[in-house]
Structure formats: structure tokens, C-alpha cells
Amino acid sequence: MSTILIAEDTASIASFVEKGLRAAGYQCQVVGDGPTALLMARSDAYDLMILDIGLPGMDGFEVLGQLRAGGSRLPVVILTARDSVIDTVAGLEGGANDYVTKPFQFAELLARVRLRLAEPGPATPSGGNDLVVGELRLDLLARRVSVEGASHDLTAREFGLLEVLMKHPDQVLSREQLLGMVWSMDFDPSSNVVDVFIRSLHAKVGARRIETVRGMGYRLRS
Ligand code: CA
User: Fold this and answer.
1) CA of 14 to the centre of ligand 1 (A)
2) pLDDT tens digit sequence for 134-164
């Protein structure tokens, strides 16, 4: 079992990430400031670090810089609200492995974590970075779906939604569940955003594959 260090000072985000990762089968440790993150990251006790940039004491870029300067090759996934090109380039030069920008969907973070750990999770029995249900094949890395020989690019939200549905085949998921799993923390329960994205997925994978269960939600048919 892999152990993940979560360096994040916002308690609600740290708890959201921790809960999700534990549910996905990982062990986690949360730290809330830069110096502690660096100390723990150097301890060899972790397989990967999720690193917030805006940390007290020492920001994420400095943590990363010092970690790499010390020779550590610990995989790092940066989690940040700063999605500007300048910050991304600064992070790459500092030796980060990957990025997820806030607000993020947990499915996206999990895909990045799995990829960096090179450890296929329980939902990828094919052993690669693909999730397969029936005729649908979802490439978790390229964010493309293949069906009946055709391949379609997915937007980040389409990808997150389809990934969740494919991980729960033949199970009815309510709009609220889908909002919580895909849109994470910034959702309005009265929003019709789920329906909108289901329609765009219908156009790509075929309407019959994702059923509307009246008054209940949606179900991906295997
Ligand atoms: Ca922060």
C-alpha cells in the first residue's frame, strides 16, 4: 500500500483529499506548513507528496526546491489555485512531477496520483492507464474515450464524470452524488450542470450507454 504525504494548510481541502485517497486505498498523512512538509518528505516514509503552493512558513515551490536540492526523487503532485503559466514553469523547473489546479475534481487528482505512483488502482484491471467498461475504454492519461473504434477527446469535466460513472457500472448515481464526486467542493445542488455534461457525453459515447433513471439519477450500462 502506498503512503501519501498531503501538504495542505486549508483544513477542508486537506480533509477532502485525505478522505478520497483513503477511500481509494492509500495511507495518508496531512501536514499544514512548509517546514514540516519538507521534513516529512525527506523521511523516506512516503511514496508521493501532494503539495499545496500557498503554505505557511515556506511556500510549496521552496519546499520542492529544497527537496530536489537534497537529491530526493519523491514524486510530487502540486495542488494549487495558481494556474498561471509563470507558476507552472517555476514548478517544473523546481522538479514537480505533475499539477492539479484548484478548484479540482477528485477524480483528476486521483488519476494524477495513480499515474505518478505507476500503480494501477483497483479500477484499472487491464493493468495500464485505461479504464474499461463494456465497449468503452477510457484513457486516464490522455483523457480520451474510445468506443466502437472511434476516439473522442474529453473536457476535464466530461472526463471526471465519465470516470466516476465507469467506476460504478450499472449503479444509479444521483445528481448530488455526481456533483460531489466530480465537481467536488464548489457545487450548487440545484445546478443542472450534471445534466448538461451527461448530454455532451451522450454525444460522444452514445445515449443508450448512460441511462437516465427518472427521479433517481444516471447509470452507465455495462
Ligand atoms: Ca494553501
Assistant:
1) 10
2) 889 998 878 899 998 899 988 878 888 999 8
Q: Report the 10 Å Cβ neighbour count for 98.
A: 19
- pLDDT tens column, 162-215: 998 998 888 888 887 887 777 754 556 667 778 888 999 999 999 999 999 988
More reliable by pLDDT, 95 or 59: 59
Alpha carbon 214 to its chain centroid, in Å, reads 29
**Tell me: the pLDDT tens digits for 15-61?**
999 999 999 899 999 999 999 999 999 998 999 999 998 899 999 88
- Where in the chain are all domains bearing CATH 1.10.10.10? 130-220
Residue 206 C-alpha to ligand 1 middle, in angstroms? 41
219 alpha carbon – ligand 1 mean position (Å):
36
Decide if 118 contacts 191 (C-beta within 8 A). no
CATH number at 3-118: 3.40.50.2300
Distance 188 CA to ligand 1 centre (A): 23
Paired sense of beta strands 98-101 and 76-80, if any: parallel
For ligand 1, the distance from its centroid to the CA atom of residue 9, given in whole angstroms, is 5
Distance, CA of 42 to CA of 32 (rounded, Å): 16
95 forms beta bridges with none
Distance from the CA of 85 to the center of ligand 1, in angstroms? 19
| CATH code assigned to 130-220 | 1.10.10.10
